[in-house]
Write a structure and sequence with these properties.
Elements: H1 14-38, H2 40-44, H3 47-81, H4 86-106, H5 112-127, H6 137-151, H7 153-161, H8 170-200, H9 207-215, H10 217-231
């Protein structure tokens, strides 16, 4: 299967992106207000740390919701019946990337690798509105990476909540271990699937696949940096 495009750019999905961005920014406000009034450690954090905490907790909830939604409506139909709903996958991809896009605008002092990661996911989700997932192997590769990242939502929850409790707290220590294990398993399955598909379908590999792998380098680099940090 080659990279194939729908007849027209899916402009109908773009309002969803705007709606998601608005929803996330409102979610930030309520989460910020809640934490400020209920957690003393949050109240004492620098402003950019507060933004970082809010961003990660909100993203964890959103990715958790996306993970649950994807199982009956995307994963099951795809694996059982080879049914891929391009419009639904476009919308889900925009929901995923809207978290990163709003974070770029909201959070100060993000690391360079995280900034590059967020930029790539946002650009890819908007370009993906050209892709017909019913026939595009490259589009499915991109969506597999998106879903695998979503299933590791506990990582984002840990990244946010670690500033709200003592490092010696047993629940925080256990959460970090669980987040590390889930993230490692997610990346292992994700990368192995990409490698397996590429080896099994080497005759279908074209320039577009090479461009995809090269463009994904900043995302993969950020994944490796984060996993290494979780292992320490």
């Amino acid at each position: 299967m080659e990279l194939t495009f729908i007849d027209n750019y899916n402009y109908n999905a773009l309002p969803y992106f705007l709606f998601f961005c608005f929803y996330i920014r409102i979610f930030y406000f309520f989460m910020y207000t809640y934490l400020k009034n209920t957690n003393n450690k949050f109240y004492l954090l620098d402003n950019h740390k507060k933004q970082y905490v809010v961003k990660n907790i909100v993203k964890s909830y959103n990715l958790g919701a996306l993970s649950l939604y994807s199982i009956p409506f995307i994963v099951y139909p795809a694996f059982m019946y080879q049914k891929w709903d391009s419009n639904l996958m476009h919308i889900c991809g925009l929901f995923y990337s809207s978290n990163d896009f709003v974070a770029l605008l909201y959070v100060k002092k993000l690391s360079p690798t995280t900034i590059n990661h967020h930029k790539i996911t946002t650009i890819f989700s908007l370009l993906a509105l050209f892709i017909d997932y019913t026939t595009s192997s490259l589009g499915r590769m991109l969506f597999v990476y998106t879903l695998a990242s979503s299933y590791a939502f506990l990582v984002n929850y840990y990244l946010g909540t670690r500033f709200l409790y003592n490092k010696e707290d047993k629940s925080i220590i256990n959460m970090k271990k669980n987040a590390r294990n889930i993230y490692a398993l997610s990346l292992l399955c994700n990368w192995n699937w990409h490698i397996f598909w590429s080896v099994s379908n080497y005759n279908l590999l074209e320039l577009q696949h090479l461009i995809y792998f090269c463009t994904m380098y900043p995302v993969i680099k950020d994944d490796i940096v984060l996993l290494t940090w979780l292992c320490n």
